[in-house]
């Protein structure tokens, strides 16, 4: 009797899900996974004959199934709580944060990253003051000692082998509270002490007053890690710091044209972190007419740079920010004037250091 009842319940569940799938409207995107979802594949004779249509339909059906997000949450709960897994596909939860383990590379791979930095120095910077800031991975602030040690070894290697530049360490000034709970990035509103350390290493002082900023809040932020390790946690707040001076800045993105310091249209998109300088950009130029100097800064950066550049901008008349994930380093010679006495800052997170092949 019990077995029969269980069979009936399973059949009813499957039938209900099937019926709901038939009547529901397909979603175009998944806010939680931050990606576009598969749509019903066009029926063509050639794709039917080759079998490709059926493969596309399977992907579509998996993307559009009702309660997809809830099923993904259930899967994570089962793997963590029932199977007792320490991580799910390289992700784990701790202290209300989601962490993603990076693939720490061998010494040989780190040497190749150092060689990449050396090649940029040799090609473009001969008499410049050059600084390097290493941004530790968020996992190094977890309780997993092995990850803490791997990050410490990475920083020690870079500090010892990046010659001819000033290495500025910020690792002991950061803590888990500096990072979003559901994302890999740091929180802009926590970065004043970090900027202070960076400028101290560059033998200068912060040229802004914290009290002059206008704090704006986006209350419903879910970072990239939430989509990779779905849970029942609530949204968190994303804060960004506006300043009256920013209204008169001229910020030029070499791909998009003139942009604002904060692109609030991004807050309703797939990645709200793109509010900072409109997200990824090969090259952008920040011109500050209020600067007390005519000094310029060239920053080689990754996505962490987007949220700290507004704070660095007060000390320079111009900042040129370069992301060589999206532009080849050889392209720079015909685009940027390196003849001036600019300060140069390499600002890279550990995720880039250990995946430097993404740099071009």
Tell me what you see in this structure.
With 360 residues, this protein is α/β, with parallel strands linked by helices. The chain has helices at residues 2-23, 45-50, 52-64, 68-82, 107-124, 145-161, 192-201, 224-228, 305-312, 350-353; strands at residues 29-30, 35-36, 91-94, 97-100, 130-135, 166-169, 214-221, 236-242, 250-253, 257-259, 283-287, 296-301, 318-322, 343-349. The strands form four sheets. The protein has an eight-stranded mixed sheet, with helices on both faces. A two-stranded antiparallel ribbon has the order 1-2. It has a two-stranded antiparallel sheet with strand order 3-4. β5 (130-135), α6 and β6 (166-169) form a beta-alpha-beta unit. The longest helix has 22 residues, at 2-23. It is globular, with a radius of gyration of 24 Å. The model is unreliable at 10-14 (pLDDT under 50).
């Amino acid at each position: 009797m019990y077995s029969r009842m269980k069979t009936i319940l399973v059949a009813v569940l499957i039938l209900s899900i099937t019926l709901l799938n038939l009547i529901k409207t397909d979603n175009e995107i998944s806010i939680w996974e931050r990606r576009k979802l598969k749509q019903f594949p066009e029926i063509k004779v050639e794709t039917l004959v080759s079998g490709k249509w059926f493969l596309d339909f399977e992907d579509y059906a998996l993307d559009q199934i009702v309660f997809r997000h809830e099923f993904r949450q259930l899967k994570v709960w089962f793997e963590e709580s029932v199977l007792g897994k320490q991580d799910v596909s390289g992700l784990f939860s701790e202290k209300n944060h989601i962490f993603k383990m990076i693939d720490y590379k061998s010494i040989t791979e780190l040497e190749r990253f150092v060689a990449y930095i050396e090649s940029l120095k040799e090609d473009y910077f001969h008499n410049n003051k050059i600084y390097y800031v290493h941004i530790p991975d968020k996992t190094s602030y977890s309780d997993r000692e092995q990850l803490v040690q791997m990050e410490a070894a990475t920083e020690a290697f870079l500090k010892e082998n990046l010659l001819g530049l000033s290495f500025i360490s910020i690792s002991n000034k950061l803590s888990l509270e500096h990072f979003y709970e559901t994302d890999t990035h740091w929180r802009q509103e926590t970065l004043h002490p970090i900027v202070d350390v960076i400028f101290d290493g560059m033998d200068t002082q912060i040229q802004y007053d914290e009290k002059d900023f206008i704090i704006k809040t986006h209350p419903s932020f879910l970072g990239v890690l939430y989509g990779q390790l779905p849970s029942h946690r609530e949204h968190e707040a994303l804060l960004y710091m506006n300043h009256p001076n920013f209204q008169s800045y001229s910020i030029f993105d070499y791909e998009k044209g003139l942009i604002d310091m904060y692109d609030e249209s991004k807050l309703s998109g797939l990645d709200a972190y793109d509010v900072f300088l409109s997200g990824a950009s090969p090259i952008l130029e920040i011109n500050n007419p209020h600067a007390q100097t005519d000094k310029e800064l060239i920053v080689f950066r990754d996505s962490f740079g987007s949220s700290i550049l507004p704070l660095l901008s007060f000390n320079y008349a111009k900042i040129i920010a370069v992301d060589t994930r999206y532009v080849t380093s050889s392209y720079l010679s015909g685009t940027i004037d390196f003849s001036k006495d600019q300060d140069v800052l390499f600002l890279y997170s550990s995720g880039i250091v250990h995946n430097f092949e993404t740099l071009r």
